[in-house]
Amino acid sequence: MVVGVLVVFDPLGSQRPGVLPDAPLGVRDLESSESSQLFYTAHTVASRVWESRLRLLCCCLPQDDNHRAAFSSIGQLVSGFFLVRCIYEIPFYVALDHKREAVLVAVRGTLSLKDVLTDLSAECENLSVEGVSGTCYAHKGICQAARYIYKRLVNDGILSQGFNIAPEYKLVITGHSLGAGAASLLAVLLRSTHPTLECYAFSPPGGLMSKALADYSKQFVVSVVLGKDLVPRLSIPNMEDLKRRLLKMVSNCSKPKYKILMHGCWYELFGGTPDDFPTELENRREEALSQPLLGEESLLVQRSNTYQSLSSDDSPSHPTHLPLYPPGRILHITEDGPARRHCFSQVRYRAEWSSETSFRNVLISPRMIADHMPDVVLHALRSLTREQPFALCPSSMSNSHLNVI
C-alpha cells in the first residue's frame, strides 16, 4: 500500500498536456500568458516528480545520459496518465423537479484546491454572445468552467434526455459562489436555445462579466447577496481601492496598531460594540503628524511618491484591468432593525433590489466571510418567507413591476 501511494500520489495535481495560450482576441488584457505559463510550469514540475520516483525505483541502473532521457520521457507519460481532471471541470448536478416542473442544473461552488485555481484565473476572456451589443468578456476561469458544463449538457445529450422525459418543463440553473458565476455564464450560453430559462445565482463573484453581458443577463438572472458578503465585492479594481484606503488610514492613524488588532480580535471572538475611540487625526492632513509611526526615516517623512499616490484620495486612479460586474438583477438581503442587539435575539431580514454600484467597495466586517456561507444565506431566505410572503422593498434603481418574488 505504501509503495502504491508513493507511485500514484501526485502532490502537485496534474494538468492536461498541450495547454497553450489562446490566440489574440482583440480586447486588451484578454491574453492569459501568465496563467498558461503557470500551468505549463506546474506540469513540468509534476513530470520531474515522476522522473525522480523512477530513478529511485531503478537506483540500481547506471545513471548515464540514455537512462536519464528515458526516465524523463517515462515521467512525462506517467504524469499524463495519472491526471485527475482539467482545472476548469467543476461538478454539477442535473435533476427533474416535478413539483415546479423544471429541469434543474445546479453547479457546485468552491470546494477543492483546483476550484481555487479556477477562482484565481481572474484575467478576462472573450465571450461572444449573439444579439448582445457592446464588448463581451468574462472571468477566464469561470468562463472556462461554464463552457465545460455547456459541452457536457449539450454534446453529451444530458439536457435532451431531460426534455425528452418532460418536454413542457422549463430550464432552471442555479449555483453558489463559484457555482453561481458558472451558472450565470452558462445561462448566457444557453439563452439562445432556451429563451424561457431562469437562473438564480447565490452569492456570485463580483468580478464576473462585462457591462454589456451584465445588462443582458438582467432579463433572466437574479443574484442573491446577503449582507456584507465579500465575494460579490471582489474584483481587482476593488482590491486596489481597498489597498489605497488602508494605506491612508494607516498614515492618519494616531492609535497604537496593537490596540486596534486586540480590539478587533476581541470583537471578532466575543462580539460586543467596537471601540468608539477615534483612530484618525480629525481635521488634519498627514502633514500634521508630529510622531510618524515608522520613525524619522519613514515613508511619511520622506514623502515617497509611490506612498502618496496610494494613500491620498486626491491621487488619480489608473485602472490596469478591464472592469467586471456581478450578473443579473441583484437582490440584496440585509438585517432589519438596530445594529446592536442581544446575542440571543431573533434576527430579522429585509430584501430590496440593488445595483452593481452598491458593490464597488470591499467592506471590512466580521460578517464578510460568514455572510457568504450557503447555510447562512439559506437561513436568511427561510427567515424572509417563514411567517408570510415578504414585501420586497422598492428600489429607485428598479421598475415597480419587477419588485415581485
UniProtKB/TrEMBL annotation:
EC number(s) on file: 3.1.1.116
Which reaction does this chain catalyze? a 1,2-diacyl-sn-glycerol + H2O = a 2-acylglycerol + a fatty acid + H(+)
GO terms for cellular component:
cytoplasm; plasma membrane
Identify the InterPro entries for this entry: AB_hydrolase_fold, DAG_Lipase-Related, Fungal_lipase-type
EC class of the enzyme, as a word: hydrolase
Enumerate the SUPFAM superfamilies for this protein.
alpha/beta-Hydrolases
Q: Name the domain of life.
A: Eukaryota
**Entry protein name:** sn-1-specific diacylglycerol lipase
Q: Does the keyword Amino-acid biosynthesis apply?
A: no
Cofactor(s) the protein requires to work:
Ca(2+)
Q: Where is the Fungal lipase-type domain?
A: 105-236
TM regions (residue ranges) = none
> Is Metal-binding one of the keywords?
yes
Q: What gene is it encoded by? A: daglb
Q: Which residues are in coiled coils?
A: none
Keyword annotations of the record: Calcium, Cell membrane, Hydrolase, Lipid degradation, Lipid metabolism, Membrane, Metal-binding, Phosphoprotein, Transmembrane, Transmembrane helix
